[in-house]
Amino acid sequence: MNPAPAIPAQGQTETRPKLLYLVTEDWYFCSHRIAHARAARDAGFEVVVAAHVNDQKVNDSPVYGETAATQIRAEGFRLVPLALDRSGRNPLHELAAIAELVRLYARERPDLTQHVALKPALYGSIAARLTGVPAYVNSIAGLGYVFVSRDFLAYLLRPFIRFALRLLLNHKRGHVIVQNPDDREALEIAGIARPGHITLIPGSGVDTETFTPSPPPPTNKDSPPLAVLASRMLWDKGVGELVAAARILKEKGVALRVALIGDPDPANPASIPRQTLEEWQREGAVEWWGQRSGMAEILKTAHIAVLPSYREGLPLSLLEAASCARPLIASNVPGCREIVRHGKNGLLVPARDSEALATALSQLAQDPQLREKMGGEARRLVEERFARPLITAQTVALYKTLAGQAPA
């Protein structure tokens, strides 16, 4: 592909390298990437964020009720609204989205771009190659719906997505960040990333000063332990299996509250209908709390964190719970097993297995000493491997290398 002629960017500095983040949603940037962007800014990068902008509030923003766009601009980052639709499938609309990115990259002339998630990786790589961006990073945070879903649409899309990833990501100017060893191996075997062009950085990092250990509330006959699942309400997060496990425990008389924290995501094909969640709430086996702010405070009220997902990159919800010294229960799948060490800081169960999940929940619900021991181990692991300063340092070092600077 021949690079398109670049148009000088307005206000571009000559001395500061420009880093452009391409993200599907502004709220996702705030929850998973804003700490990296701060570190890049402090290391001398000019930061631009290109994303779809909506009015969604940020759960843990410094100002309660603040929108993601407001928080991004408050950090001093320039925000470029995009029409990119992460669930769009209309070919004409998708071509228009790619054309919009080509114009953006030609205008901004970034030294480095980071494309976060699958569609930005594909479309951003096209734009980067057409406009001659010197280096671009594709962050694959778990292989997602197309690779883990069993529905017919995902089955049809899978070979085309694999081919597109090989074509677009395997390039001399491209680099790939993965969050767990399984994803790295899968991408290498598929020929999607060149040798030496793939880096494992375990997640986004967790703020250990916000998510701090605290004693869980006392339990008794009237106040049973609380297990929480914090995620978008998607089938492939294992929400259906958790509801089935909660029913099993209720039938057996095991005292345990199970709370689902999060909203449906209509843009995701695996989204659970709101009506289904409301029916589960009325049934009484689980509680659906919806989207909540202040997860650090919520985790103080919990005794167990659970995520029976089908596949993950490196789930932030488990890291935050571990940082609060809560024991973990998760599926034995890529991403989750990097955080949960079976028998040490939590329990691993087979994916899509409600009976095994119910057994694990019952074990921790009835053993407060084991919960305390595993919670302490969970906090230790976060401090040693997943604390935010460790992760941001690795990320910024990669940025500097790709932008032609010597890492500090």
Provide a descriptive summary of the structure in words.
The protein has 408 residues and is α/β, with parallel strands linked by helices. The chain has 2 domains: 18-205 and 388-402, 3-Layer(aba) Sandwich (Rossmann fold); 226-385, Rossmann fold (3-Layer(aba) Sandwich). It contains 15 helices and 13 strands. Strands 3-2-1-4-5-6-7 form a 7-stranded parallel sheet, with helices on both faces. Helix 8 links the parallel strand 6 and strand 7. The longest helix is centred in the last third of the chain and has 19 residues, at 368-386. The radius of gyration is 21 Å and the shape is globular. Mean pLDDT is 90; it is low at 1-13.
**What does the average pLDDT come to?**
90
In total, how many domains does the architecture comprise? 2
Q: Residue ranges: pLDDT <50 for 5 or more in a row? A: 1-13
CATH architecture assignment of the largest domain: 3-Layer(aba) Sandwich
The strand order across the widest sheet is 3-2-1-4-5-6-7
Q: In CATH's first tier, which class of the largest domain applies?
A: Alpha Beta
* Element-by-element helix/strand order: EHHEHEHEHEHHEHEEHEHEHEHEEHHH
Helicity, as a percent range = 40-55%
Find the CATH superfamily of the largest domain. Glycogen Phosphorylase B
Shape designation: globular
* Whole-angstrom Rg: 21 Å
Question: From the helix content, strand content and strand pairing, which structural class follows?
Answer: alpha/beta
**Approximately what portion of the residues adopt beta-strand conformation?**
15-25%
Largest sheet: 7 strands, parallel
Write the CATH fold name of the largest domain.
Answer: Rossmann fold
Please tally the β strands and state the result. Answer: 13
Our measurement of the CA-to-CA distance between the termini, rounded to an integer number of angstroms, reads 34 Å
What is the overall number of helices? 15
